[in-house]
Amino acid sequence: MNEEAQSRARALLALTGLLALLGLAALTATARAAEPLPPQGPSPPGANNFSCKPPARHPYPVVLVHGTFGNMQNSWNSIAPALERLGYCVFALDYGNGTQKGVNGVGDIPTSAGQLATFVEKVRSATHAPKVSIVGHSQGGMMPRYYIEFLGGARKVDDLVGLSPSNHGTTNPAAPFGGTNCPACVQQVAGSPFMQHLNAGDQTPAPVTYSVIETRNDEVVTPYQSEFLPTAGTQGRVRNVLLQDRCPTDATDHIGIIYDGVAIEYMLRALGRPGPVDAGYQPDCSGRSVSTFPDSSSGRDAGTAAKRGRLRIARIGGSARRTRARRLSVRVLSNAAGMHGVVVTIHLDSSRGPTLARSGRFSVARNRVVSVRLAHPLRARGRYVAVAVGRDAAGRRVGAARYFGLRR
To answer: Phi and psi at residue 361, in whole multiples of 5°?
Structure first.
């Protein structure tokens, strides 16, 4: 075999290997999205009544996700009854089970996220709810973000409330020693490949809203500031709360936060209104108001549903000569914040005609101009149509079209 033939053979082998690797990655992602649930332990009081039907004021069932080394029975015996008292349908699961009974949340985190995806589908099927809200502690406040970003959860989750979530890992020196008995421990080390992958892109995909509730006394996830999520560009969908900002004497730590009355009150406030917890909320710092916390209306779709999001394309004018640079500017308008995943396409004659241009995906708060690259300059007196398609804050598909022509 001559050198040229050998080079071709090596290139073909490399391409074959790459395609196999990509196929394996796709299969792995699919498998993780349908991970079977591990054996489930006893439920906490007030949780896992699969005959529960969500009331109009709380249309989204609440799924409780424990932390590393935890289980649902011990983690949620304060929060589950508090939610049940207010009429929520409450569900909890065990995931990432270890070899020791009741010691869970130690398995590979993407696999655990697949188990959460399976459980969410079980809850949605039983309750006929389009979405769920998730409350998670420690790893359980971070791991659902993997489900939201990589396993299709963004359209199935309304709120994510994290109680001391390990959103960016921890610098705690004990974390790396989990080893083979706790892959999740190693993955939660600050700067680990898993953490880099999780936080490389959009850390808070829309339309989910995010509330992070944290204590300055966190000794497990360190530094405590690493738990907060970025808020820039999220249009108010993300709120970070430090308990001691409003209640300076609150002494709760990482483990105790799921039993702390002030933290639970913040959680109830976050779930009991559209969007994340409000920045100006003042809890009862005594922590004794959980049992009398007032009921409210949770979601944008509760009772009186929020109006459906709409898109509109502004009038497109100008001359065909301006498209010689193969660029066309299109102004997209919306009637509400939260429009996301919007794509603009340009077609000849009708929306079913040949596609001449396509934008990338973008979000629209109220008004946005997007520049699309054309396959070729447009003709004067030609008949064209611009089409915009995206989803509103409730995940509903919406679209708009605008016919236009250009001068010479």
So the answer is: -80, 145
User: Tokens at residue 245, please?
Assistant: 């900002």
User: Phi and psi dihedrals of 225, rounded to 5?
Assistant: -65, -20
DSSP letter for 379, please: P
| Architecture field, domain 27-292 | 3-Layer(aba) Sandwich (3.40)
Domain limits of the chain?
A: 27-292, 311-404
- Per-residue model confidence (pLDDT) at position 296: 80
Query: What is the DSSP secondary-structure string of 194-245?
Result: HHHHHTSS-SS-TT-EEEEEE-TT-SSSSSGGGGPPP-TTSTT-EEEEEHHH
pTM of the model: 0.69
Helices (H), 62-163: 72-75, 79-85, 109-127, 139-150
User: How is residue 182 annotated by DSSP?
Assistant: -
Q: Which fold has domain 311-404?
A: Immunoglobulin-like (2.60.40)
60, 133 Cβ separation under 8 angstroms: yes
E-state strands within 318-406? 327-334, 339-348, 355-358, 362-364, 367-373, 384-391, 397-404
DSSP-derived secondary structure letter, 251 = -
Q: What is the pLDDT of residues 51-110, one digit of tens each?
A: 999 998 999 999 999 999 999 999 999 999 999 999 999 999 999 999 999 999 999 999
At 135-178, the pLDDT tens digits run 999 999 999 999 999 999 999 999 999 999 999 999 999 888 77
